[in-house]
Amino acid sequence: MSAKKIEVAKRATDVLRLLKREYPVAICELTHESAFQLLAATILSAQCTDVRVNMVTPALFAAYPTPEKLAVADLAHVEQLVRSTGFYQTKAKNLIGMASQVISRFGGEVPREIEDLVTLPGVGRKTANVLRSVVFGLPGLPVDTHVGRLSRRLGLTKLEDPVKVEYELNAMLPPPEWGEFSLRLILHGRRVCDARTPRCEMCLLESLCPSSMLPTKKPGKKSAGKTVTKKPAKKLAPAKPSKKPVGAKAKKATKKATKKTKARKK
Ligand code: SF4
């Protein structure tokens, strides 16, 4: 392994350790009570927030609590129920197709193997890994938009393809940690490392993040005590000095102006 790869793997381990300390409880924010419900909720979460999905699923699961019921559902009714999650026509079709195949091919039980999960309608590697790690307690590292963005900012990968990012991260972390590492990165992405405005000043990963926007102190023989700037932080433009006098000066100026006016009148 090259020195660079060893350094990146060490950083991944440090990120994992710090995130565990910051977010001791890593939970999936999609409300569910079974593998089938989590599978349906994760299909709905594509291009949609977990909050929105959680608003929709109570009515969906009340109407169609099992794969058997959802498999024979009226498409128009399912569309109506999931409409607010976006791409509702495709999602409704995938939900019914998923339920139908879970019954016909897997005896009504959601499969555990990634190779089986990804054959279901609307299920990609991300969804399959959510199921494996959250419900079945198996190794699985879902790479969503937060995980991809943070992994790149933290210098753990340069790749954009979520599947390639998943393989890179998998190689650096122990399999039992994969699922919760993903959940913790998602939490950190939502709370601190925002896509547009990362809050580096309050980030616990700042000292090891190559994308930090803050100046940082690096101890060492040559740079001891010196401030090393990773990237120049954006400075606010200085306020323009006001031409109008303020406070006591203002009173003086007003008095002077009044005197002048009076003198001219005389
Ligand atoms: S230091 Fe900034 S860019 Fe790096 S992970 Fe933290 S918030 Fe994101």
Level-2 CATH architecture of the domain at 35-135: Orthogonal Bundle
Write down the overall mean pLDDT. 86
**In what range is the share of β-strand residues?**
under 5%
Instruction: Identify every distinct bound molecule in the structure, by name, code or SMILES.
Output: iron/sulfur cluster
Biggest sheet architecture: 2 strands, antiparallel
Q: Give me the side-by-side strand order of the main sheet.
A: 1-2
Structural class: mainly alpha
Q: In CATH terms, what is the fold-level topology of the domain at 35-135?
A: Endonuclease III, domain 1
Helix content: 40-55%
Distance between the termini: 94 Å
Based on the model shown, name its key terms.
266 residues, two-stranded antiparallel sheet, elongated, disordered C terminus, binds iron/sulfur cluster
Written description of the protein model:
The chain has 266 residues and is mostly helical. It has helices at residues 3-22, 35-44, 50-63, 67-71, 75-82, 88-106, 114-117, 125-135, 145-153, 162-172, 178-191, 247-265, and strands at 215-217, 227-229. The chain has a two-stranded antiparallel ribbon. Helix 2 (35-44) packs antiparallel against helix 6, helix 5 packs across helix 6 (88-106) and helix 9 (145-153) crosses helix 11 (178-191). The longest helix has 20 residues, at 3-22. Residues 217-229, 231-251 and 260-266 have low confidence and may be disordered. The site of iron/sulfur cluster has 13 residues, from loops. Iron/sulfur cluster (SF4) is lined by residues 153-154, 192-193, 198-200, 203, 205-206, 209, 211-212.
